[in-house]
Specification:
heterodimer, A: mainly alpha, about 75% helix, B: Rossmann fold, Alpha-Beta Plaits, six-stranded mixed sheet, five-stranded antiparallel sheet, elongated
Chain lengths: ~240, ~300
């Protein structure tokens, strides 16, 4: 049933311009880094210690944080908004579909879109590095870690935004929470305490071990997902 | 009497309170196979809330809902498979075409693809099926909603004010469709409306709800009988003739010129006349008062006109 629901979710994305939006995140990050490297090529490549590939991956990861957290609340709100806009929840809930499956499909859709965006970073970073002449000794391990670990560490934020977006009709609420979270993560930076999930996606996984951040992200993400699902199942449909 | 197995919808003391106020209060609905059940009430009487309770969109505060003789709390998925519904205004995805909207529902119902063409033909939307629904008129959206409800070959069709926004020709079409479905497909239908005149011509049974409570539930013919069987006698001294009729068991009312009795067939009318004459009252006129169904409906629902 989940597979059927997912196929319906993907069908409903037609003409919503969500896929271009998904691509916009990683493309924007890489474009900004392209400008950064074009302007300060000598400084970034010759005057910094270490391999140029490592520098590039860290630079990309640093910009990705804002893009990822922004992408989460926008995509969660858009995928839920497809139902809210014309009160279509009642249409689907009156069909022989389990409400928890319906919630699972919404969560999976948002998670899938964000995963696509995160994975897109890998070939785009490679393309930028190659065009900057960094050579073919590409550190794929670091590249994949830098692209995927922040995504996994951000699962609690994804689960929270899906919960709020799906259960609250007025999308101003989840959007506000999303923006405040994104700003906190970006501007408070490393001053955020370790226990706050907004810290977890901003570790530079190109040079750091996933440590507890990634497993904690997956675990707390599942907990928040389950809580959101129970809330959705319990609530009456508008 | 039909057997229990033919009960399609049955609610027992169904109640829904929203912030302490009972918007649906101890409602007992009974619909049997093949019925076209007209669910009537003024705006805000609790019709839509009741329908939401029937479909499990809203959970009751107390009471039970049984569809196909099964409690929907435990068998929601099994029973919803046999139900097609249109609640309040039609739900649709404006950025999708009619075909895509129906496809989204079809995948969840797992019915053959041909059903999409079938239902589009039934509601005559085939020509516009490739257009985005946001460009549809209200009537077309309503017809798409009905098509969606029909998609899964339902045994029970629940339509909440399905003719809202339709032009007279569209209303006529939907009416003919609704009348034909129980005959051709054995479908049972619940159709809600705030206009008695609208369901009067198709319903076999009616339930009337006002301020959250059922005030009437019976066959439409029974409602008609109630509406027409009042007899008015114009007599010389109504005030003193009144106790006479009362003591003989008539439900009578009087004013300074006449007496009125309710539920009078030919025999009891004749007996009443004989009684009055025997006691030396002058009977000037005997008239049948035909209250329209609409005025009876207004009386039952507390005179609240739907605006």
């Amino acid at each position: 049933m989940i597979i059927r629901l997912m196929s319906v979710e993907l069908l409903k994305l037609r003409r919503k311009w969500i896929w271009p939006l998904v691509a916009l995140g990683p493309v924007g990050v890489i474009a900004l880094q392209a400008v950064n490297y074009a302007l300060r090529y000598d400084y970034l490549v010759h005057q910094q210690p270490g391999e140029p590939w490592d520098g590039l991956i860290s630079a990309v990861a640093w910009l990705t944080l804002a893009a990822l957290l922004t992408g989460i609340f926008i995509l969660a709100s858009m995928t839920a908004g497809i139902e809210h806009q014309l009160n279509a929840w009642k249409l689907t809930v009156a069909l022989p579909v389990k409400k928890r499956h319906l919630y699972a499909a919404k969560f999976l859709l948002t998670a899938l879109l964000l995963l696509t965006a995160s994975v897109l970073l890998i070939p785009l970073t490679v393309a930028l590095g190659l065009s900057l002449g960094f050579g073919t000794a590409i550190p794929y391990g670091q590249l994949i870690a830098a692209a995927l670990f922040p995504y996994l560490a951000a699962l609690p934020v994804i689960a929270l935004q899906v919960w709020l977006s799906v259960t609250i009709h007025n999308q101003a609420v989840p959007l506000t929470v999303g923006i405040v979270g994104m700003m906190t993560a970006n501007f408070a930076g490393s001053r955020i305490p370790d226990w706050l999930p907004y810290k977890w996606p901003q570790i530079d996984y190109a040079v750091n071990e996933p440590g507890l951040y990634v497993p904690a992200g997956i675990a707390l993400g599942l907990v928040i997902y389950a809580a959101g699902m129970l809330d959705f199942v319990r609530k009456d449909v508008r | 009497m039909t057997t229990i197995a033919d009960s399609i919808v049955q609610t027992e003391a169904l109640t829904k309170s929203i912030s302490g106020k009972a918007v649906v209060n101890e409602v007992n609905i009974k619909i049997e196979r093949g019925d076209i059940y007209g669910f009537l009430g003024p705006n805000g009487a609790g019709k839509t809330t009741t329908i939401r309770l029937l479909l499990g969109l809203t959970k009751p505060t107390s009471g039970t809902v049984r569809l196909f003789d099964r409690d929907i709390r435990n068998h929601r998925l099994d029973v919803l498979r046999k139900v097609g519904s249109l609640v309040e205004y039609p739900s649709y995805y404006g950025h999708l075409t009619a075909v895509e909207n129906l496809e989204a529902v079809r995948r969840l119902l797992d019915v053959p693809k041909e059903r999409i063409d079938d239902v589009l033909a039934i509601v005559r939307l085939t020509k516009d099926a490739g257009r985005q629904v946001k460009g549809y008129s209200l009537g077309m959206k309503q017809r798409l909603g009905i098509a969606t409800a029909l998609l899964g070959n339902p045994e029970l069709l629940i339509l909440d004010e399905p003719t809202n926004g339709l032009d007279p020709a569209g209303i006529q079409e939907i009416r003919e469709l609704i009348i034909s479905l129980p005959r051709t497909k054995g479908v049972t239908i619940l159709i809600s409306s705030h206009l008695l005149s609208e369901v009067e011509q198709m319903a076999t049974r009616v339930g009337i709800i006002a301020k959250g409570s059922m005030v009437y539930q019976n066959s439409i013919s029974h409602l008609r009988e109630q509406a027409i069987s009042r007899i008015r006698f114009t007599v010389n001294d109504p005030a003193s003739a009144y106790p006479l009729l009362r003591s003989s068991g008539y439900e009578a009312e009087w004013d300074d010129r006449s007496l009125t009795i309710g539920r009078a067939d030919n025999a009891s009318t004749a007996e009443a006349v004989a009684l009055l004459v025997k006691h030396h009252y002058d009977v000037y006129r005997v008239e049948e008062q035909t209250a329209s169904l609409e005025s009876l409906f207004l009386e039952m629902t507390g005179g609240e006109r739907s605006l």
